[in-house]
Structure formats: C-alpha cells, structure tokens
Write a structure and sequence with these properties.
This protein is an alpha+beta fold. The protein is built from 5 helices and 5 strands; from the N terminus they run ββαβββαααα. It starts with a strand and ends with a helix.
Length: 150
C-alpha cells in the first residue's frame, strides 16, 4: 500500500508501486477528471500536481508519490471554480474538452510561479500540452484573463 495525500485528503493505494499514478487516480480512487492521452508523457492530458509541480501521471508511478501531495483537477479549487476554470468558460476554450483538465493543471503551475506571464511565456510553458482541436489561441487568452482576474 502506498499512502499519499490526494486533493488534501490522506489516501492509500492498493496498487503495486510500479502502477502509473493515472490508473490509481482513475480506477482505484475513482477521480476521472485526469485523462489518458498517449501513455508516454507526451501530450499532457494526464497532468496532475505532485508537491506543486506539474507531472504526467501516466509516466509517474504510484510508488514515487509516497507521502507526497497530489492534486488533480477535482482538487484544484474544491470550494469554487478556479480563476482558470472561469476563464476557460469565458474564452470558450473547450471544443471536445478531452485535454482541458491537463491544460488547466499545467497553466495553474505557471500562474503560481508567475502572476503576470507574457504571451511568449505562456506559449513556452504550455508547449508540452497538445490540443487536437487546436484551441491554442483560446488557451492563451484564458490564461491571460485568469492572470488579470486572480
């Protein structure tokens, strides 16, 4: 059993240490906001926070998060919509929506470090997250809006 904190609550995973964190979150702990995209840490759909850093949960083993603080999209702002979530709606970012939780989780790390990022900084920071629908301009606009409103 691997014990860690998930969205502010202590949890224990029964899965073997080498099991991808993604599958523990989705299948064992039943939080389905984190998505499977590529399984190779290339697309960003599975992004969660581990101790405040954005990580790809498909390539992070549950054993490596023992004692860590893990946050999923469900725990990003448990009491009210996060400024990024509000901006995502206002800027009409989602089309299919599949990658959006990973996009938001990646953007949240940027705004935690840099309260007023430039367009270039946003594009650079978000470059590892893929959106097959191509809503990149909307994503940038939403991050800029969230930065102003936060």
């Amino acid at each position: 059993m691997v014990a860690f904190n998930l969205n502010g609550k202590a949890v224990s995973a029964k899965a073997e240490d080498g099991t991808p964190l993604l599958w523990v979150i989705r299948d064992e702990l039943k939080l389905t906001g984190t998505k499977f995209g590529c399984g190779a840490a290339l697309c960003g759909a599975c992004t969660v926070h581990v101790n405040g850093k954005a990580v790809r949960s498909c390539a992070t083993t549950v054993g490596s998060v023992k004692g860590a603080n893990v946050v999923t999209i469900e725990g990003l702002s448990p009491d009210a919509p996060h400024p990024l979530q509000k901006a995502w709606i206002a800027e009409q970012v989602p089309q299919c929506g599949y990658c959006q939780s990973g996009q938001i989780m990646t953007a949240a790390v940027l705004l935690a470090k840099n309260k007023n990022p430039s367009r270039e900084q946003i594009v650079q920071h978000m470059s590892g997250n893929i959106c097959r629908c191509g809503t990149y301009n909307h994503i940038v606009a939403a991050i800029q809006r969230a930065a102003k409103e936060a």
